[in-house]
Amino acid sequence: VLPESAERLECVRVNGRPDQQVSPFDRALHFGDGLFETVACRRGRPRFLSLHLERLRWGCGRLGIDGGDFDDIRLEILALAREIDAAIVKVVLTRGTALARGYGVTGQEKATRITFRYAWPKETGAESQEGVQARTGSLRLGENPALAGLKHCNRLEQILARREWTDPGITEALLFSSSGKLVSGTMSNVFIVDSAGLRTPRVDQCGVAGVMRRVVLREAAGAGIPVREDVLDAGDLQKADEVFLTNARIGIWPLRALDGRAMRIGPVTRQLQASLRPLLEEPVDA
Amino acid sequence: VLPESAERLECVRVNGRPDQQVSPFDRALHFGDGLFETVACRRGRPRFLSLHLERLRWGCGRLGIDGGDFDDIRLEILALAREIDAAIVKVVLTRGTALARGYGVTGQEKATRITFRYAWPKETGAESQEGVQARTGSLRLGENPALAGLKHCNRLEQILARREWTDPGITEALLFSSSGKLVSGTMSNVFIVDSAGLRTPRVDQCGVAGVMRRVVLREAAGAGIPVREDVLDAGDLQKADEVFLTNARIGIWPLRALDGRAMRIGPVTRQLQASLRPLLEEPVDA
Question: What is the ipTM for the molecules in this complex?
Answer without folding.
Answer: 0.96
